Every structure is written in C-alpha cells, then in structure tokens.
Amino acid sequence: MNPQQTFYWALAGVASVLLIATFIGWLMARRAQSEGNEKGRNTVANLNARIRAWWAMIALFGFAFWLNKPAVLVLFALVSFMALREFVTLTPTRPGDYRQLFLSFFIILPVQYFLIGIDWYGLFSIFIPVFGFLIVPAYTVVRAPDIEDFLTRIAKVQWGVMLAVYCISHAPALLLLKIPGYEGQNLLLLFYLLLVVQMSDVLQYVFGKLFGKTPVAPLVSPGKTVEGFIGGGLSATLLGAALWWMTPFRPQQAAGMSFVIVLMGFLGGLTLSAIKRSLGVKDWGTMIEGHGGVLDRLDSVSFAAPIFFHLTRYFFVP
Amino acid sequence: MLISRGMILAVKLLIGAYPRWQGCAPNERQRIYFANHSSHLDALTLWAALPPALRRKTHPVAARDYWDTTPWRRHLAVSGFNAVFLDRKPKASDGDPLQPLADVLARGDSLILFPEGTRHHDALPGEFKGGLYRLAQRFPEAELVPVYLENLYRSMPKGTPIPVPLICSVRFGAVLERDADEAKHDFLIRAREAVINTASQTT
Hints:
By secondary structure, chain A is mostly helical. Chain A has helices at residues 3-35, 38-67, 69-90, 98-117, 121-143, 150-169, 186-211, 226-242, 251-279, 294-316, and strands at 215-217, 221-225. Chain A is built from 10 helices and 2 strands. The longest helix of chain A has 33 residues, at 3-35. Chain A is globular, with a radius of gyration of 20 Å. The radius of gyration of chain B is 16 Å and the shape is globular. Chain B is built from 9 helices and 7 strands; from the N terminus they run H-E-E-H-H-E-H-H-E-H-E-H-E-H-E-H. The relative contact order of chain B is 0.22. By secondary structure, chain B is an alpha/beta fold. Chains A and B meet through helix 3 and helix 4 of A and loops of B.
C-alpha cells in the first residue's frame, strides 16, 4: 500500500467507527426519550452533540490532510490561535499587557509555524523557550512599563504561549522529521498521534461512564475515574499497537509509544483541569458544541505531542 | 457587501463577538440597543453579533469626528457596518444633532447607541448622556434593549491600533420597561443599571 491508500483506509476506519457511534447515539436518544430521566437525557444529548462535532472535526482535518503540508500547518496555526485566545480570555490581563499579547499572537505564533514549514528544526525547538521567553517581557518593559503584578502577568502569558503555541505545534512538527524508510509518509504519523490521543479520551470517557466509581482527583476533575483511565488507557494502547502499520514502528514499539501518548494525554487533561479550576471555570470556551472550547479538546494533545515528537526523533531519526 | 463580510469575518476571528441572548430573543421588532462603550470596535462588534437578517435593518451610531474623517473610514463605516453618523460637538446652526438618528427610527429601522457618548476604558459604563432619553421619548414603540460588551476594553486599550484576540461576548439583557412619568435623570440611571445588571448576570 502506498501512503495515500493507507491514509484513505485509516480515514475510512475512523468514519466507520463514527458511523457506529452515531447509530448508537441515535438508539440511546430514542430510549432516553421514552424512559429516561432528565439527567440521562442531558447526558445523551451531550453525547450526540460530541459525536456531531467529531464529524465536523474529522471532515476539517481530513480535508487539510488531503491538501497536504501547507494546509495542515495553516490549520494548526489557527487551532493554536483559537487556543491561545481562550487561554488569554480567562487570564486577567491589563492594558499594559497589550504589547506582549500583540507579540504572542501576531509574531511568535506565525513564526513558530513558519519554521516548521521551512524545516528549520534547530530554531523551531528553541524559538519560544529562548527568544520568546527573553524578548517578550523585555519588550513589554521597554514599551509600556507597568510594574503592577508584572511577574504574574508575564508568567501567565508565557504559560499560555508555551501550551497553546509551542506544545501544540509539536504535533504538525512531526512533518519535518526525516525517518529512514518512512519518507513522504509523515502525515500518517501525525494522523496516528491524533487518533491515539483522541481515542484514548473517548475510550476513557466511555469506560468512565460505564464502570467509573473511584475518582482519580475529585477536587480537580470529578469526571476522571481510575476505572475509566485503566480501561480506556489500556484499550487505546492496544488500538495504537494494532495500528503499527501506519507508523515507522514495530508492533511492540507502537504499543510503547501509544502508552506514552495515553499517559501524557491523561496528565494533560488533569493539569489543564487544575488550571481551569484555579481560573474558576469548567470549560475553556464554547466553540465546539458538546466539548467546550478548543483547549478542552486539545488539552491531551498539547501534553502528548512534544513527548511523542522527541521520543520519535531520538529513537528513529539518526 | 464584500467589505462587510470581510469585516465581520475579521472581527469574529479576532474577538469572537459571540451573542448571548440572556434577557430577550432576537426579533424583527424595532429596537434601540444601548451598550457600554470602550473601543472603536464596539459598533462593529455589536452589529456583527446580530443575526444577518437583523443587521440589514440595524444602524450603529458612529462618531462623525472619528469615522467620517477620511474617505476610507467613512467607507468602512457606511458600507462595512451600516453606520449612521452623529456630531458629538454640533454647532448651533446645524439644528438637532439627533436628527439623523431620528430619521433612521422614523424609517422603522433599529439603532445601536452608546449613551456614554465617549469611550470609557473600564469594565463598567460611565454616566449616560441624554440622547437615549430623547430618542426613547420620541419613539415610544421601539424596544429598549440593554447590551453589555464584555472584554472589549481589554482587547483594544486606548491608543492601540489593532485589537488583540480575546473572546468578547455580546450580552443582550431584558427589554427596559417604559415609565411615562419618569424624569430624565432617573431614566438614565435606570438604563445604566440595566447594562450593569446584564454584565453581572452569569450565563
């Protein structure tokens, strides 16, 4: 199979899973309509909203993948933009923050994705943690000296940029890796990462709803349960291993990689939940119906992508 | 039309302009929307948050001394977001400065008004000026809808050319009740409080 065909097969696989989910959702809605209580109906309605949003997201990503690298980079740049917008909205900023926000949105974000586009790994990997880290606060001081809560303000914006731009950009950065024997197929690797992360989220949700009893961290995220994590995490790892043929990995290696993706995704969800709680909200936004904001859908990707990127680079790029 | 679509797309991408119909639903009745004023983007944002069918018959009030100073700005205001100009420092010889606004209402169209008269760089609005009262008196049929523009003062502080991206919701409050005997001063205070109440309501 050439990469094109592999991609279509994978996409068809996802579409069939969604088709089954849509059918089950329809059955559940019918049952909840006749016998369910209020809470049950709401859960089912939210489930169906999530499934509808999945169709839209799959269509969007499938289209960008079909258009190839530049479209994928533009799509991820927009995703980072929306995620950073959500983060900054919930972070109290002052008029004095205008300069650092301007730099973050209109200079740092596009440059980061441009560096992936021209395959400049060296600068891509240090641009935000070195140049952004130093230049942005310095520029803010020079242009608009406002010392009230200065450290807190720059720290929050930097956290947002690291998360929404730097971390998320490591997913499309998989496209710049030169893996021997896997040339021209890197889009599949990106597809694989997104698939394992999102299936892990979905399966943890399903296992949690079916068998969940023991909350992992009731204060941070009441929805996350030990049963959900173990059941969903294990099945997502198995799924990742079974999809080894999309990747440059052998089946055992794919299982290991998937396990890391699942674990990091879980930790990402947990950490970002803690941040949401500390900001006093439940969701990052309302952009994706049923899911919340862009960051609610990408919290696990933002933690899994950089680690997956560097493990792949360390072990598979000579 | 193209310029209008472009401006709506830009404003949605930068600041969302998500409508939250908290106290009333969008409908075709004639309305005077009145909102807090904190940036040059306010009129466009509120207008873009309306459903497309209502946009055509709704005119934001724009300050003549800003939006009518260059042909380019004038074009943006008139073709871009359907603006009607208001002289903030009228000469006595020009007659009633509210007349262009009254003409819009007399046609049966709706109006978007910023009763503070000038930008106020704060979360909550400052004192209201009398124009809203006079227009409300002259057009008793129009519904008075308080609107709170959230976060715009953070997105575009004074003296900055481009808004930074933040999610700004546009919250529509409950229609202000009319009281024929109410004095101007009391009415303006009540109208301002209606905007503040809309701001403090959580959705």
